[in-house]
Write a structure and sequence with these properties.
Elements (H helix, E strand, L loop, with lengths): L2 H8 L8 H13 L6 H10 L9 H19 L12 H20 L35 E3 L8 E3 H12 L3 E4 L6 H12 L9 H24 L14 H14 L4 E6 L4 H9 L3 H8 L19 E7 L2 E7 L9 H16 L7 E8 H6 L1 H9 L11 E6 L29 E5 L3 H18 L3 E6 L17 H9 L3 H12 L4 H16 L8 E2 L11 H4 L13 H12 L9 H15 L6 H14 L3 E6 L14 E2 L6 E2 L12 E5 L5 H13 L3 E6 L10 H8 L2 H5 L6 E5 L14 H6 L7 E3 L4 H13 L6 E5 L13 H5 L6 E2 L12 E5 L3 H12 L4 E6 L1 E3 L3 H11 L5 E9 L5 H11 L5 E7 L10 H16 L5
Parallel strand pairs: 4-6, 4-7, 7-8, 8-10, 9-10, 12-15, 12-16, 16-17, 17-19, 18-19, 21-22, 21-24, 24-25
Antiparallel strand pairs: 1-2, 3-9, 5-6, 5-11, 13-14, 18-23, 20-22
Helix pairs in contact: 2-4, 4-5, 5-6, 8-9, 8-10, 8-17, 8-18, 9-15, 12-23, 20-21, 22-27, 23-24, 29-32, 30-31
Amino acid sequence: MTDTFEQSLSHSYLNGANANFIEALYEKYLADPDAVEPRWRDYFRDLEALDPQSGRDIPHSPIREAFEEIGRSSRRGRAQSASDGMDAMAAQKQAAVLRLINAYRVRGHQHADTDPLHLRERPQVPDLDPAFHGLTDADLDTAFNTGSLAAPDRLTLREIIDLVQRVYAGKIGSEYMHITDTAQKRWIQERLEKPLARPQLSSDEKKALLNRLTAAEGIEKYLNSKYVGQKRFSLEGGEATIPILDELVQRGGRDGVEEMVLGMAHRGRLNVLINIMGKSPGELFAEFEGEHAPEHASAGDVKYHMGYSSDIDTPGGPLHLALAFNPSHLEIVNPVVEGSARARMHRHNDDDGHSVLPVLIHGDAAMAGQGVVMETLQLSQARGFYTGGTVHLVINNQIGFTTSNPLDTRSTFYCTEVAKMVQAPIFHVNGDDPEAVLFVTQLAMDYRREFHSDVVIDLICYRRHGHNEADEPSATQPMMYQKIKARPSVRKLYADQLTEEGVIDRDGARAMEREYRDELDAAHVVAPGALEEQDNEFTVDWSPYFDATWDEPVDTTMPVDRIRSLQEKLQWLPEGFELNPRVASVMESRRKMAAGALAMDWGFAEIMAYAGLLEEGHSVRLTGQDSGRGTFFHRNSVLHNAADGSTHTPLKMIPEDRDNFVVIDSLLSEEAVLGFEYGYATADPETMVIWEAQFGDFSNGAQVLIDQFIASGETKWGRLCGLTLYLPHGYEGQGPEHSSARIERFLQLCAEQNIQVCVPSTPAQFFHMIRRQMLRHWRKPLVVMTPKSLLRHKLSTSVLDDLSGGSFKVVIDDTEGVRPSSVQRVVLCSGKVYYDLLEERRRQERSDVALIRIEQLYPFPEAQLSALLKRRYKTVKSVVWCQEEPKNQGAWYQVYHHLTQCITRDQKLTYAGRDPLASPAVGYAKVHYEQQRRLVADALGKIHG
């Protein structure tokens, strides 16, 4: 670079006059270095940071800020004249300072003192060293512009370094520079840098903080002494969790949150129940002594899986707290909490999460290792699943199971890296600094309120005992537990700090411990602000649903005039709305079906069932990967304008004053989406909540939800749920992965009338089944084996009179008018195979075989089937169960014991179907069709002369 060029710089942009020009030129350089003159290219290259890991945007930021700050200085009238301007070296130093500030914002967290045990060696971060940027000790007392730093306009380098180290490399490590929204980044910067990342607490606030730590430690000591050796999954080492949750509740209530839904695994759960939720210590003690069972549950669950709900007094009024039940599958509760929160938002008419707040408490190894965490984060901003932002708290014990090596639990430095995918800010905080913890909690809550986005608090602490209280952690983690055993508790450390500050004396600190223990001895509720149960307009009364029965009589019919009126509303289109020709054909067919001029198909019956429920005041929520249109182009509940791509959802017009129909084409997730819908259904008994698999076997990806929540939630926890699952099922030669919805797995889970498993075979049956699910008071999950080819099968149709009359039939007798006296064989079946049997029987012109459909496989309709077999067909000797699935799959082995109760002594029960197979179905079309032909032939048997 020539002297002439240096002189031109010192007399141009350095006085702020040409800042915009320089900025534009630099932008041009970033896009293409060869597009600017060589002397400018050399100059900009000299200013850039040399750290290859930082990416080009990192050096650009401080340079841009330097130009902006010089421009601001000029406008404030403090700009130097051209002749007095800084020389090029001074400009380089200024840019270096801004790069250093930026480096601390980006990477200061790597040097932060966030680990109370100091287990990991502090990594080498070259760009946190002033020398890396060309700054020396000689520059320490030189004043520089501070750029966008929330500080005075000019500080010495020494002061700047001191400030950024305290803010970004103290007890809090902040990660937020990955956020692309400038307003969000600026907001965080100001909140971190202005108060120097440290709350200014009064003496009373410090005492209150100590009091919460005393409670967190006190319950653990009490349980350890009273119930020696019993599992409780202690919070010891992470006691700062309790002040965090207390602040979330109180600050949330102050800011308008009326309901808070919490999800957490077992670590610290008992502590939270007692010290936050307000559960009676006496009730907990009874659980330890095996004398307490949850209401409405028959089998119960271990105490550290149980949920709870309560009301807490806050500065903004009562706040309802709901802690979700959760099995030992740790993070699986995450989507359940989000779904419950969304249902509550619907009740509050709350679109942005102002009134309802979800809070998820993670373990460090679980957050990093379990895929449902990622899936749930992916829901956070998705239409139909948005809950206004979740506060995530990681109780980071720095270890997974006791025997785990922390280096084996993840590939990333932090367990929270996954949260960056949704650009959530992450605040790592030392769990042994309660005041830093409190500040981070306030920051997180304020960020969520301001931006309605997820935010993460990573509470870095430790686990004083092993995985459970019977574990011996030092056998496999000797070095970690040497440090833990030598370390005083956070409560002790903070009490000593306050004693030194003169806030409290040692007698006062000991008195806190005694008072808390006395309250436990008296079995008093110890959670601050705990209230008696509060009823308000948003409270759901579940009592009508507890004593209902599955066979409760209910009228599911709809008069023909009403059907036609609703269909007319559904035909309305906005002005200028142009339908795709194929969709237009579907709509025209539905118009004819309503007029009685065309046989009714499944799509019409389904849409009409929803329309009736909506008109009657219920809500309908349907999600799945292709639910708007329907995987098989059968539903078309969302219409797309062929001209401009806009959409119209006819069902949203019924009724016109309430938006009670939601249909969402969900993200490519089964586990998180099904968990979300389960959580929604457990919080709202008056919404028809439906999850639809694209193909039935895709529910495999959500098996944990099915096993641990849907099938067993009522038995373990007394938790009712009316969730409906649509699982397309049927053997049509599409191979192993698109044939079976694994009906055998659902039937294996059936007991105590916990779920319903139905296989409707006509549109009218589907219609009545849907309406029955909502119009009864019986709130149990409904698993439906929905059709594929039957959606357009010429024989699988209904007429309007089937909707205006009748009901859902759990068993359907032969409808071809066979005479019982002529029948030699009765074939029992479910689903599509009925039509294969029917067509073959017609082809053979058989009258000696009766076909009976079992439309509800559980609760099994023994009474109805027995009446047919023991009365109407009592002379028949041969009863056959026919199924498409291999013998070791399908319903055969799960309904066999029911079938034997339904036949007479003289009747012989046999099987007709595919042979046992390890795979759900063959992958070769010719083999499939030959198997299908053979099983139909076996079921019908030989023609009797």
